[in-house]
């Protein structure tokens, strides 16, 4: 295949671990062989990208693809094309809302069978822990999932029920053995609050899922993590999609005490805020909810302080019918934000206003996430020996997000009409050009990624 032969990419702005600099990247057989000075003579074809930024491909470790079983919500073909168009070269699929949910080895095998010839980028998989599958957890881990996720509250999916404290106490030592992260949807309703009337009122929805649900859940996980640690199990607990910035102080203390405790947040918590969400706009519904502007600024501070480890999409689509777009009924609408391919321009637009540079954004969306899933030795950096997963980015272009750009299945997103900076021009997956200015490669070239030390 010609794409695998030796070639080089030259740019005045290559984002290396040492910073952005002029360089020529020598690529052979899908790997980065060397980083030369920009002016070096090369013995292979050279593409000069001039001022366009060459960055590591994004690694998005939180994506709901819903196949098999709910492919009418989203599937591997459309989701991974959207990923390629957004500069994402690796994503990790969540254990729900597919059917069956990925909580057994057999279900995982079904999922692996369903991805064949549909992956346009590389794709890893999370498993799940529910009260019913703790006896099968070793088998699931051995089958190659990268880690597992649990809910502390209703997941919206009957066959993926929340875990209790006793389940978590059993799961942590098993996962510690594999050094795999335990992902937690951190909302905990200790008082079993009655569901209030929400209808189409966003503020009512926001009030129905208060910050203390997140704070309480995180405090519980810190306590259980510390208990396990005292018993000799230093498990890695990871909080998915943090929205409440109030939890950051407890997280900071837990980390200082030596607990392996990591945090992610998402573009919607960093770009959108409750004060500007109109009533009846169900596209903005997700759990935990998008909170007030002041909370959003505190999340940005958490990123700057290194308390929040990385940014992932939590792309969680469904059909327009289930989103109740026409009725505007926020109460009935499925919760989840659809925006897989727009993560980088959304975050870059906000980051540049706050004096955060592109190197930091790249760290938060590529390097830190690659490290999180144990692939930091071959993905998430532009350095010799790494896979040539690259995205070509024009950070200065400004444009409006329109629905005709959308590559995921249902052409709906809360970001329609939003002005952003930064366009993904091209995406290379292991040295192969998989996305080129609106066009995809001849066929899907992505591969399933299984945990390596199984
Ligand atoms: Zn999610």
List the helices and strands and how they pair.
Blueprint: E1 7-16, E2 19-28, E3 31-36, E4 46-48, E5 53-56, E6 58-63, H1 76-85, E7 88-93, H2 105-114, E8 122-125, E9 127-128, H3 137-142, E10 148-151, H4 165-178, E11 181-185, H5 202-208, H6 211-230, E12 236-239, H7 248-256, E13 261-265, H8 267-271, H9 293-304, E14 310-311, H10 343-353, H11 358-372, E15 390-400, E16 419-429, E17 432-436, E18 439-440, E19 448-449
Parallel strand pairs: 1-4, 1-5, 6-7, 7-8, 8-19, 9-10, 10-11, 11-12, 12-13, 13-14
Antiparallel strand pairs: 1-2, 2-3, 5-15, 15-16, 16-17, 17-18
Helix pairs in contact: 4-6
The structure holds zinc ion.
Explain this structure to me?
- This protein is α/β, with parallel strands linked by helices and 454 residues long.
- The protein folds into 2 domains: 7-48, no CATH class; 58-379 and 409-418, Metal-dependent hydrolases (TIM Barrel, Alpha-Beta Barrel), CATH 3.20.20.140.
- Helices cover 26% and strands 22% of the residues.
- The protein has 11 helices and 19 strands.
- It has helices spanning 76-85, 105-114, 137-142, 165-178, 202-208, 211-230, 248-256, 267-271, 293-304, 343-353, 358-372, and strands at 7-16, 19-28, 31-36, 46-48, 53-56, 58-63, 88-93, 122-125, 127-128, 148-151, 181-185, 236-239, 261-265, 310-311, 390-400, 419-429, 432-436, 439-440, 448-449.
- Strands 1, 2, 3, 4, 5, 15, 16, 17 and 18 form a 9-stranded mixed sheet that branches. The chain has a 6-stranded parallel sheet with strand order 9-10-11-12-13-14.
- A hairpin with a 2-residue loop joins strand 16 and strand 17.
- Helix 4 (165-178) packs across helix 6 (211-230).
- 52% of the residues are buried.
- The model has no long low-confidence stretch (mean pLDDT 96).
- Bound molecules: zinc ion.
- The site of zinc ion has 5 residues, from loops.
